[in-house]
Amino acid sequence: VGSVSAVPLSRQVQGTGGSSAVSKCSAAARGYIQDRFLRLLAGRRRRRAPLIHRGYYIRARAVDHCVQDFLLKTQSHPRTQVLSLGAGFDSLYFRLKDAGLLHHTVVYEVDFPNVVCQKAALIKRTEELSALVGDTAGEGLGAIAFSGEDYKLLGVDLSELPELGRTLEEAGLDNEIPTLFIAEVVLTYMENSRSDALIQWAAERFPRACFLLYEQVHPEDPFGRVMQQHFSQLNSALRSLTQYPDCEAQQRRFLGRGWTECSVMDMNEFFTCCIPEDEQQRVQALEPFDEYEEWHLKCSHYFVLTASKGMEPSWTPLLPHVTVPHHAGPVGMAGSIPAAVCARLSGIPGLRRYGHCSVLIKPNVILTTGGFGEEDGQHCRLRNFHVLSKHAGCWKAGCVTKKHPDKRWGERLYHTVSCVSDSLALVVGGRMSPSSAGLGMLWLKFPETYNASDPDDIAVELVNLQPAAEPATLRWRHSTTEVTFKGEQYLFVYGGRSALEPVLGDWYFLHTRELCNTVIAVEGAVPESRHSHGACSWEGGVLIAGGLGAAEQPLGSVFLLRAFERGFRWQAVETYPPLIPRYSHTAHVHEGKLLLVGGVWFHTSSMPGITVIDLMTGLCLDYVINVEHLEWPLMLHNHSSVFLPNEKELLVIGGGGNCFSFGTHLNPEPVSLSLSSILTSH
């Protein structure tokens, strides 16, 4: 991470560089990236989480992809050079040299003087590194901390352009030969006027040049706000974001400062388009993983940009290997829905959770179970159940007394709860960790009568079940929906994932009374496998919408499992315009309209709000959620929601997740959305 002008800031910014070296080293140790030099340069060793590994994998992959493309396109030139700005303890030179890719290329690295001095000392005392640099390497003069035949380390402030130019000239940088500039999360820490000047200086001084930029984007959506807050707390604010909040603004920035070609991709696009399918599958299988939402949100908040001028042939490393539908344009919003905090529910820690399940167990009484959240000031998998009840127009919260030991509950996430009577609900599936087998079924018994004015007054008994339909229930991120066939009630368990299968496309009909798996004929083209989809009962059958498919790509398909005399039949529901692919949303149906709430999509210009699909006409309308009355970012994924048809009120409970290395965000309180304006008859 590179130099900025403000002296007090430099130490914090250097800290981000050290942390990133440790993360890259951890990713290499787990096989994400092949780089034996990171462990020699990183110093500290620390094992990071799989989400961090993926984040640093995609970063390393994007930089390598573009650097190697530059070296390939310029191999006919007698000499080329790479200038890495704010290189920190990066291993780029050693990897390229080791791979035999630097026959006629010199690598220059610029960073704070104390960083390059540390790196120079490290190289000299580490035989494996010094052997690659060669015998001729030694200390340079002044700002040149280290000088080898094809490797120079320069300690200079990037924001002081005259000094930077002088030092580079002394070190032997040649303005006339093809030059690649690399800025990997560097410019964003500088004042915009200074980083803009650097971009323009590079274009003006080098007639044949390429620029590679990797940094953050989208500061104003919920994930972006958490990301910004994290860097501000580290005293290393992301300064580019105010002036250049999206990929298009960054592109205009370069084209307006002397660069003639510029292309940009966010990291979801890069992963899908520029990484071969077999490599995607290799990475996805490296570790047990279940943080898809945070992975895709992280990828939508980082981009890679390449700009060039005077290059023959033109340098276009971001041309995709495959063509995918591009969703960068704005989503046409049909209107907005105001979000209101439920006044009496603030400060109740048990409602701050994600990966949980909420179900209406009686009119105006909601039971919330499981998930990951906050308990006694700690983040953990939650054992406590919570109940919300509406009395005299106000929601009140209370805890639940559980009968029988907690072991039966098993601290589960991503399970389903289905009410089968006034006093009985069935818990299906869920998991503890992504590497452990899914959890089976459990009965929840609660009193038939209930005093809504006193929400603390409820006891729930946990009853273990014999593994009558175990294969159906060893899954999570699935759906369990009530269906009717020949007058009998069944629970339709569909999709999800398991410890062995990253995505499932099978289904089971569980007879509600006997809980045995019943074989019922199903006709029609089978929907592709999915998890984290939306599902709800409709006219005796099931509606399935969206979800995450086999290649970890969001799906935009909607299916109806419709009952007929001999069984059920899958039917595709066509939507106009086509539904934007999404997953991790919730679904409800009301008077022939399917409501999809929140979720994650790759459409970077906006966040999913509420989508209304008219099941008669297929008309699909998107509504934005107006959060101006909320004092915190509303993350609408991994949430639960309950729809109260009489009031046309939607209550959103929990939601959020582990936001990459930026900390865990939990929506602090339930939010009420009034849908009466969008559900009136048109």
Description of the structure:
With 682 residues, the protein is an alpha+beta fold. It has two domains: 301 residues, Vaccinia Virus protein VP39 (Rossmann fold, 3-Layer(aba) Sandwich), CATH 3.40.50.150; 342 residues, Kelch-type beta propeller (Neuraminidase). Helix content is 24%, strand content 30%. The strands form eight sheets. An eight-stranded mixed sheet has the order 3-4-2-1-5-6-8-7, sandwiched between helices. Helix 3 packs parallel to helix 14. The longest helix is centred in the first third of the chain and has 24 residues. It is elongated, with a radius of gyration of 28 Å. The two termini are 55 Å apart. It holds the Pfam family Beta-prop_TYW4.
Measured between the Cα atoms of the first and last residue, the distance is 55 Å
Low-confidence stretches: 1-8
Q: Can you say what the CATH homologous superfamily of the largest domain is? A: Kelch-type beta propeller
> Which class of the largest domain in CATH terms?
Mainly Beta
Domain module tally: 2
CATH topology of the largest domain: Neuraminidase
Average pLDDT value? 90
Radius of gyration: 28 Å
